[in-house]
Amino acid sequence: DTAVSQTPKYLVTQMGNDKSIKCEQNLGHDTMYWYKQDSKKFLKIMFSYNNKELIINETVPNRFSPKSPDKAHLNLHINSLELGDSAVYFCASSQGQTQETQYFGPGTRLLVL
Amino acid sequence: SQKIEQNSEALNIQEGKTATLTCNYTNYSPAYLQWYRQDPGRGPVFLLLIRENEKEKRKERLKVTFDTTLKQSLFHITASQPADSATYLCSRGGDGSGNTGKLIFGQGTTLQVKP
């Protein structure tokens, strides 16, 4: 069974479009995260939710909006996609709020043309 | 601001040797450091966590150290195997005063173990 799953795995879209990425974890964790990994491989946290409550909101454009319908799911919606949004987006989860021992999903490779 | 610096150059070693990867941090010591492994096209996988008050931690062939004087963590893989070839990410967590803060990742060091 996949612990942290993301859909879609690949996403190719045109500039200006709106797209969503979905994430689900079956580990029973309280906290979920979205990370962006750019072409230089830096992994940067974007958002973190604990029990559906937003606890980390990094400086990302407000075109990015996370949504957590329940503690097992954390989705990411991106409006008006730009070329610079092209990256790999990872979802992760962990128990508690300490950010220790995170379990990552397989990533969603987003390419904006 | 807090940073994590890892050698961006790939590390090439011969099978059976010990691989040593370096992670340097800036400013105050984090509450803990974590090491993750990332294979191409996949998400990072947690390996080890070491806290500020721990000098060393081991797990099978892996060993991590935390030196608050040098502001450095070393990650060792003994008896390395070609299957250990991957990118290894170091991250710092906590702000040193008990708060959780946010995880900051280094760029990662790619290890290539040759048979």
Task: Summarize the structure in words.
The complex is a heterodimer of chains A (113) and B (115). Chain A is an all-beta fold. Chain A is 0% helix and 56% strand. Chain A has strands at residues 4-7, 10-13, 19-25, 31-37, 43-50, 53-57, 64-70, 73-78, 87-94, 103-104, 108-112. In chain A, strands 2, 4, 5, 6, 9, 10 and 11 form a seven-stranded mixed sheet that branches. Chain A has a four-stranded antiparallel sheet with strand order 1-3-8-7, with no helix packed on it. The relative contact order of chain A is 0.34. The model of chain A has no long low-confidence stretch (mean pLDDT 93). Chain B has 115 residues and is mostly beta strands. Chain B contains no helices and eleven strands. In chain B, the strands form two sheets. In chain B, strands 2, 4, 5, 9, 10 and 11 form a six-stranded mixed sheet that branches. The chains are: A mainly beta (113), B mainly beta (115).
Low-confidence stretches of chain B: none
How helical, in percent, are the residues of chain A? under 10%
Mean pLDDT of chain B: 90
Instruction: Characterize the quaternary organization of these chains.
Output: heterodimer
